[in-house]
Amino acid sequence: MTEFVERVSYLAEGPLALVIGCGDMGMGSARALGRRHPLLIADRDAERLDRAVDALVHEGYAARAIACDITSTGDVNNLAKVIGRGPGVRVLAHVAAVGNAPGGWREVMSVDLLGAHRIANAVAPHMVRGGVAVLISSTGSRQSQHDPEIEALLDDPFRPDFEEALIKAFGREPDFLEAYYMAKHGVNRLARKLAVDLGPNEVRALSVSPGLIDSTMGRTGGSLLPVYDGGKKRLGSRSEKAVLEVPLGRQGTIREIVSVIDFVTSDAASFLSGIDIAVDGGSTAFWQSRGVIGS
Ligand SMILES: NC(=O)c1ccc[n+]([C@@H]2O[C@H](COP(=O)([O-])OP(=O)(O)OC[C@H]3O[C@@H](n4cnc5c(N)ncnc54)[C@H](O)[C@@H]3O)[C@@H](O)[C@H]2O)c1
Fold this sequence. Notes:
Layout: H1 9-13, E1 16-20, H2 24-33, E2 39-43, H3 46-58, E3 63-67, H4 73-84, E4 89-94, H5 104-123, E5 127-136, H6 148-154, H7 162-170, H8 176-198, E6 204-210, E7 213-214, H9 216-219, H10 238-242, E8 252-253, H11 254-264, E9 276-279, H12 283-289
Parallel strand pairs: 1-2, 1-4, 2-3, 4-5, 5-6, 6-9, 7-8
Helix pairs in contact: 2-11, 4-5, 5-8
Bound molecules: nicotinamide-adenine-dinucleotide (NAD).
Residues 21-26, 43-45, 48, 68-71, 95-99, 111, 115, 136, 138, 210, 213, 215-218 line the site of nicotinamide-adenine-dinucleotide.
């Protein structure tokens, strides 16, 4: 066991920390949140989910699994039904997304944007007083166009002609990265809307935008990049150049994201709501200084 877990009965029976996605960041979040709340972990990859929850239980966490593909209305309704039978949700950490999708831009929209909306709609009615929803976004969200027509679509992704209307507003089909940026921009907007809608119930909502992170997802974008030691920078792939846009000169780590998730979901952050926090080693400031994005 690597971390102390207060495994007492009120903890195991209290409102849940619901973590959607058991990849690198989801598991880091689960280990942080599981020190304060019983865990319910959801993912579409049933084998990975079983391994994840076995590991958590072995480490002493009160953790349960529920298989759930966030692109499936049936799965998400089932998740809501299971939650509805319990004492509610104290923390929602919505982490699941696709970093590289065989289904291209449509899959990115379906998982990263519609999936986030589907989970928010299903879980919001079960959030208890003092609760908090943190939606994991990306600094890519800040590189998306601030076009009112596109933003109106990102706010209403279940309209039947969503994809066609997006192509029309964007002027063509977006590529994978453009869609990822738009979807994550939509996630930031969703977090703000939740903060306004759920605030009167004393529930907070916000988004956290990781920058360039050394992770399984990050590594699909290119070979290893400098991490803590700011080691030699070999230029070549897009992401190797990207590290030069990080003023701290290296990638971040999963732990550096998880520690922010830990803080923003704790009572120490009880007046923090409706914002997006970039955890990016200064990339956003770099892009602003170069006029790549507005301030
Ligand atoms: N890792 C990075 O470099 C990085 C950088 C910026 C932002 N982010 C964001 O951080 C979040 C998590 O990143 P990660 O490193 O943990 O990724 P990861 O790929 O390790 O984990 C993602 C998890 O989501 C699950 N998932 C994917 N589609 C799903 C679906 N339809 N239904 C249910 N589960 C699904 C996967 O099975 C996987 O377990 C994502 O929102 C990502 O966009 C990551």
